[in-house]
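Fold it.
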Amino acid sequence: MRDNEVVNVGPEPLSFGDVIRVARHGAPVHLTDDAMAAISAARQRIDELAESPIPAYGVSTGFGALATRHIDPALRAQLQRSLVRSHAAGSGPEVETEVVRALMLLRLHTLATGHTGIRPTTAKAMAGLLNAHITPVVHEYGSLGCSGDLAPLAHVALTLMGEGVVRDGAGNVGPSAEALKQAGLEPVELAAKEGLALINGTDGMLGMLILAIDDLTRLLKTADISAAMSVEALLGTDRVFAPELQALRPQPGQALAASNMVRILQDSGIMESHRDPNACTRVQDAYSLRCAPQVAGAARDTVAHAANVATWELASAVDNPAVLADGRVESNGNFHGAPVAYVLDFLAIVAADVASMSERRTDRFLDVARNHGLPAFLADDPGVDSGHMIAQYTQAAIVSEMKRLAAPASVDSIPSSAMQEDHVSMGWSAARKLRRSVDGLTRVLAIEVLTAARAIDLRAPLRPAPATGAVVGALRESVAGPGPDRFLAPEIESVVRLVADGSVVSTVESVTGPLA
């Protein structure tokens, strides 16, 4: 499926690819006939409850600790407006467009399941925002990851009402009402339960989880590439990656990482140059070289677990109260973000550890006691030139920050809503720090690739493997080879872009075929 192909939204689960296409590539959405039928059936039941004299939470009562008050029918439209306005209380920096689009899509999917009681016209209005590329301005702080991502989703609901602030398709910030008018969309007058249905979900933290899984899947392949380049340029051995040794410990991710490294290093002249035991007296490589598949493999298995959790969440309809298939409307606790929060924290841990190992490999290149014949700091004229000395400092600073970000958010809880909501997940906070960790890992791996490429060049006339040589060639299109010191920051950023957009992985795969 092309990145911009329409994504159909119905009661059935979305795929990871659907979320990525809408969030990152701006793909349009379409509510299916099944979705509209499910939405209409659930709405009929909500309308019946709204007319009943018996109080129903979220339909004819207040919210949270104020749920004991029965709301007069004449005040219920005001109730919904007041809910959204008061909950749109975010603060801090603006959240990225791709995160907000993911959040909107995932909320739309829950509406499409027919378990929220939203009106069809309101669901269509949400789809209209996505298709018009109108992105509500959502702020960094405001969600506790329980009762849903309340403040972030409320800012989206506020836009549906024609209030608040948005970014249009050109990236300009302006009033929601004006953006809706320019797109030919009408503001929504929310009816009974609709305000609650629009804000009571784990969509923000789930969207960020799916985006992180997409990034980490690519970055762990990059970690195998950077590790292989380091093993090669540091005159390490690839014998430890042999399948018969990996089979002694049948961790699935480890086997995949080791297999990738073997394929990346295939036909390396540098590796062949020191296979003769009479020419190479080293018995074992350092852990950062020898154990690279064990660490990157364990990270892969953690990502796989996170993907399972995200898949289960994509099959969910998170709202409270929920409209059941038999017409009952029942309160529940499915809005609690614990399942998503835990794996968001797990991924920050593994990102920090993969980055930590990468930084240790880079450091080995710079030390003449450990780099096996390369110049100090890979400098052209050590003493006059500093080479990659401070690039490693940059790595170290990022890794240190990532270790702090690896402290779990999900073990914290601050009670809210007059102790009615007395345990919360902090999943949104876990997701926000994971995004910073993913960016950090991208930068750390880029510096290792940049440093290893310089070291491979310095091994000439020995010939690198075709795959690693292809990476060096790709870098040399924008980054010069070894030589006197020059402005290093732009070179680092150039390689960061090649890592982030997948160019490093695709370059290797053009030689090896798809990596695992």
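The mean pLDDT is 94.
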